[in-house]
Amino acid sequence: MFYRPEDGHGLPHNPFNAIVTPRPIGWISTRGASGQDNLAPYSFFNAVAYVPPQVMFATTSAKPDRGDTKDSLGNIRETGVFCVNIVEYAMRDAMNVTSGPWDKDVDEFEKAGIAKAECESIACSRVARAPAGLECRLTRVVPLEGRSNFAVFGEVVGIHLRDDCLKEGKFDVTHFQPLARLGYRDYARVTEVFTLKRPGE
Length: 201
Description:
By secondary structure, the protein is mainly β. It has one domain (15-189): Electron Transport, Fmn-binding Protein, Chain A (Pnp Oxidase, Chain A). The chain is built from five helices and 14 strands. The chain has helices at residues 16-19, 71-79, 92-97, 108-112, 173-176; strands at 23-24, 26-31, 37-42, 45-49, 54-59, 81-86, 116-118, 125-127, 132-143, 150-161, 166-167, 170-171, 179-181, 187-189. The strands form four sheets. The protein has a seven-stranded antiparallel β-sheet, covered by helices on one side. The protein has a three-stranded antiparallel β-sheet with strand order 1-13-14, with no helix packed on it. β9 (132-143) and β10 (150-161) form a beta hairpin. The termini are far apart. The relative contact order is 0.20. The mean pLDDT is 97.
C-alpha cells in the first residue's frame, strides 16, 4: 500500500501514529501567570541534545479558551518555563485523566488526584512521585505547518530522579516501566532491555 497524506489513506483509522512508535510521553506541567497549575501528556516529545541538555514537545491542536493553542503552551508563553515529568506504568490512569479537554482554570493535579511538588530552579509544579522530572526554561517556540501546530524547545536546568529508580548508579527504567504511546488508543510499557555495543567499542 502507498498513499499520499493529502489524498487520504482510505483506512478506518489514520495509521501515521501507529507507524512512528513507540513514542515517549512528556507529561508537561506548567503554571500560568495567574498561578494556575496545569498538567497534560504529549507524545510528540523527545530529548534533542546533550550539552546543554535540551528537550522538545509539539502541541497540535487548540482549545476555544486558549486561542491558537492549548493550556500548556499558553502558560509557557506567559512564564517561559515548564517541567517534563516521566510517566510510569503505575500512573497510566492518572495520566489519562490529565489528557482531557479541561477548562484552563482546572488543576489537573487535583482532578487526577496527583501529588505535586514545587520545582527547585523554576516557578512551576511537578509530579511529586514521577520517576524523573526535567525542569526546563523555554528556548524557542517554532510554528509548524498546519493549524495550531507548534514545537516547543527547552533547556533542562534541573533534573529530579526518584531514589528508588537508581540501581548501582544507573537510572533503571525497568524498575518503573515507562509508558510509551503507540497508535490509535494503544500504549506499551518497557519491561526488558538489551545492550548493543557500537562498532569499535
